[in-house]
Amino acid sequence: MSVIFSAPLALFVLGALSANAQPTTTTGQPTENVDQATYTVTDYNPDTDYFPEKVATDHSAFWSVEYFNSYKVVTDSFSNYTYVMYQRGTPEPVLEELNLAPTMGTSIFPVPLGTLTVDQTIPLRFLEVLGDLQNLKYAPASTYQYATSACLQKIGETSNYTLSDDAELRRAQIDSTDLHMVAQSMHPEKDTEEYFIYTDGITSDPGVLHRAEWIEYLSLPMNKEKIASDDFAIVRDNYMSYNETMASVTGDKPKVAWITTGDNYGPAPDYAIDGKKWEIVDAGYKHEYMRDANLEAIPAGRYLENNKTDFYNAIKDADLVIDESYFYGIKNSTYFMTTYNISEADAAEYKFLQATPHAVFGPEGTINENYGSDWFESAVYYADRVLLDIIQISRPDEAIVQNHTRTWFYNFATETPFIITSANCTTEF
Q: Which range is the signal sequence, renumbered to this chain (predicted)?
């Protein structure tokens, strides 16, 4: 059978999370952060707190923020960089007087900012939640090609917002926007006049809520802390509630093997042994999902040609397998049996293949027409829904998932992914 998965909520509520209402005067103590990019303080008062709506890192390990009346100091410890963001119209802080902790570099710029150049897809999904996708001015062609955001696809189809491959034109495009969100590895020679923040730490922060809380980091240059903190609170509270519910479940824990295979690009002598690897993944956040769903994870390990039998022996007792191998296409049972070289005659040796249907799943349940996977996009933020997906495929009888429609995980034997297109976006750009 086929199943249609629910598209991520952020795809359809781009306009629902509207910007904060703007004060009509600059006089007195603000009660809200001002997030209009053109807003400028005209009657600066050093005793006024211009950031009454604040965030604090309760989960993320790789960024922090410290507030002062007219500026905020943001530290990205993953990229080893500091940002001083001051309210536009207030005095620019003097770096030498701030006594900042030493980092690789410091950038200072006024906020709130508006138009954006974004070099990665992942931040754009967070920005969509913040209501900032309409402020996107430039992104690489690959972003539009593989995006699973319907509205981002629509922007790519209807607007000339592609970041050029020509170095000179690209520089001009970036300079024409207020802020450049970029991976540090893609930014070796920054323009000292450019306002930028690094985004590498989002998927490196060690935990499912650690990663999701980066929405608050991305909100800081736009003064959208309240939108970010309110939305993240929903994700966090849902996640913790689901985790608490599953912690009370008794009985045997289903065993899960989260696996991948493909070419081995490791260093010699591994690569010299064989050009292929079989792996039970060890990513901490994936094991966190399995632990919080009250599952038993098959121990991680990496296996090459000379010991691949150990891989097969390790997964034989798994009740369920999640395959995350890269594949340009739609995975099904034939793909799985062929890729892992398991014959129908040998299937009886594997517990997950004795199930009806076979208990083999992949996280590509929402894709675009070019097979871009939403697992690498909105799943980074919506940890609560990822947890429900995993509970449903491993413990489908639990009451907590009876009304849940999966977004990412689908069964190779009986289900097909939801293919999202620009037609799913109802926002006008």
A: 1-21
- Chain centre distance of CA 185: 18
DSSP conformation letters of 4-56: PPPPPGGGT-TTTSPPPPPPS-SSS--SS----TT---SS--TT--S--S---
Distance of alpha carbon 301 from the chain centroid? 25
- The domains of the chain, with CATH numbers, are 236-424 (3.40.50.1980)
* Residue 414: φ, ψ to 5°: -125, -5
Half-sphere exposure at residue 372, Cβ-oriented, CA atoms within 13 angstroms:
20
Contact 219, 129 (CB under 8 A): no
At 9, is the pLDDT very low, low, confident or very high (cuts 50, 70, 90)? very low
Q: Supply the angle between the helices 383-394 and 284-292 in degrees, to the nearest 10.
A: 60
> Which strands, in side-by-side order, build the sheet including 196-198?
136-138, 116-118, 179-182, 196-198
Instruction: Assign 274 a pLDDT band (cuts: 50, 70, 90).
Output: low
Burial 258-277 (b: 16+ CB within 10 A, else e): bbebeebeeeeeeeeeeeeb
Angle between the N-to-C axes of helices 121-130 and 225-247, in degrees from 0 to 180, rounded to the nearest 10: 100
Distance of CA 93 to the CA centre of its chain: 32
What pLDDT does residue 20 have? 36
